[in-house]
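Dig into this one:

. . .
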Amino acid sequence: MIKLVLYRVLWSVPLLWVVSLLTFVLISLVPGNAAQAILGGNASAAQMSALRGQLGLGQPLWTQYGHWLGRAIRGDLGTSLVTGQSVGSILGSRLTVSLTLIIGGTLVASAVGVLFGIWAATRGGALGRLVEVGAVVGLAVPNFWLGLVLIELFAVSVRIFPATGFVSFGQSPADWALSLVLPVVAIAAVGMTIIAVQTRDSMLEVLRRDFVRVLEANGIPRRSIVYRHVLRNAAIPVVTVIGITFVGLLGASVLVESVFALPGLGAELTTASAQHDIPVIQGAVLYFTLIVIVVNLLVDITYGLLNPRARVS
């Protein structure tokens, strides 16, 4: 297990470098720059040239990237070209909001999806067909559209939850929970259906194995067989899907945060992209990449806990 963790950590270093390099190159190829975003379209060529020089945008691309990389290695992600604020301070507070939304969505999707998957596998019939229909509908409905529908139903028509905004936990735990209900449901919907289908299919495959019939013949209660033996053996593919769902919610959070006006990484990345604010974009992408690396590492560790044969000693 220790070798596995070290292996993943070592591989994360070149991965972070490649992602940062590709992000920088792709951003640089997009028409426009931060100077144009700051000055607007009415600025003179002299003003534009002066601001480009002040921001360091007149240097060759490899020089700009080299300066950014040198600071990033030392833990300094630079400053925003537009606001002049530290990228770390800009993204630090927003990281908490995004992680709260994504972790909450993953937990809801996992709990509901696994529960429905178990029911569909053990009871079948109409519930099994309902899971299949739900999977098709869940994949077809975009998260942001579902978010708009939820706002219309539960914030405008009924007025149970706030339509937009985020309240910190320290300010008011109750308002914090209320502000997260609709965005968490919107972001969890797709993952919920996928996890339910995977849980059902994995459970059905394990239920056909010989050891289940042996346990039943020995008089072991059905509930104990399902939750102590079958679910554990079916858990590895489900854990894989949960990990994929978490990573997928990183992308979904960008639109959901915009719909619900949440001050998260996704909303900041959207704003920075429109302003060509390269340091902020680089920092946000770096944060997203680190989250993916950590999630994949946790999934691998969970494999080892569920199946000793998967451990690397």
The mean pLDDT is 84. The chain has two domains: 2-73, 91-310. Residues 87-123 form the longest helix (37 residues). The domain at 91-310 is CATH 1.10.3720.10 (MetI-like fold).
